[in-house]
Write a structure and sequence with these properties.
alpha/beta, Rossmann fold, 2 domains, 4-stranded parallel sheet, 15% strand
């Protein structure tokens, strides 16, 4: 190939790429998310221009790890009218999303993808890949999975470190039991989740009396929202908890880390590692 021919071929390739760019961008689906856990994944794997709206929960700093970012995106309150007006190509929904809205979208042949709450990291990885593929960026899904796994590795206990008993304790005494994603994260971080000894199976509430009678080494406690605490949050600051003194260490575990996987697990791994170091120190 002569130099002139080579330059012509390169120029033709560049021209083809430039002309294909806008067409490729238009081919990517425009997306609405109706769930805060799906919101958190979506903002990591989709182009900003693809995201028509997130759920309104995404802006709540008590419930969302992307509250600051979410304030820069439009939101909906999950009504069918709001979603339809945005003319999305794809709507991400969850089992707790409005059934009426989901039914309306189905009747109008608007594509929806329904996601369940993941109970393990394996299930969560499948969801990340599914979302990333649906928005046309499977490579970003793999990159996000790699980041989460790196955070898990960084937060893992040292070889030989003893396991530490712990309980997640949120407003109204709400806790996560075995078979949940939080339970797996606790085990990966060197904790033994003792929710079962209070009668919990998967999710449920632990009474203050039972907790005081048989405390774990670490209480992974939520925090009351700024301002006046709600009735459900009063249990988090009950004076009786202070009476446990050296028998139980209290560590912060924000409620926004309780339900979601994906990029939320990066924060979860770091918070759990910090809690473990509180009680084990250098031996952690």
């Amino acid at each position: 190939m002569t130099d002139l021919t080579r330059r012509a071929a390169v120029g033709a390739g560049l021209a083809a790429g430039l002309s294909a760019g806008p067409a490729a961008a238009r081919a990517l689906p425009r997306v609405v998310s109706l769930n805060p856990c799906l919101d958190a994944v979506l903002v990591h794997v989709a182009d900003r221009a693809q995201i028509l709206a997130l759920s309104h929960y995404a802006r709540d700093p008590q419930q969302s790890t992307i509250a600051a970012v979410a304030r820069t995106f439009p939101i909906t309150y999950e009504s069918a009218e709001e979603v339809i007006a945005l003319r999305p190509d794809l709507v991400l929904t969850a089992a707790h999303s409005s059934l009426a809205t989901r039914a309306a979208l189905t009747r109008l042949n608007i594509r929806t993808e329904l996601f369940k709450v993941p109970n393990s990291w394996v299930e969560n990885q499948a969801q990340i890949r599914r979302i990333a593929a649906a928005v046309g960026h499977p490579d970003r899904g793999e990159a996000l999975i790699a980041r989460v796994e790196a955070a898990m590795t960084a937060g893992a206990p040292r070889p030989g470190a003893r396991p530490v008993t712990a309980l997640v304790f949120q407003p109204n005494g709400f806790a996560a039991g075995h078979g949940t994603l939080v339970d797996e994260m606790m085990r990966r971080a060197g904790f033994v989740n003792v929710a079962a000894r209070y009668g919990l199976k998967k999710w449920g509430n632990v009474s203050l009396e039972r907790l005081l009678g048989d405390p774990p080494e670490v209480l992974l406690a939520g925090q009351a929202a700024p301002g006046a605490a709600t009735w459900a949050e009063h249990i988090l600051n009950h004076p009786a908890l202070a009476s446990l003194g050296p028998r139980m260490t209290r560590a912060v575990f924000p409620e926004r880390l309780l339900y979601c996987g994906g990029p939320v697990l990066i924060d979860t791994a770091a918070v759990l590692a910090t809690a473990r170091r509180q009680i084990l120190g250098a031996a952690a």
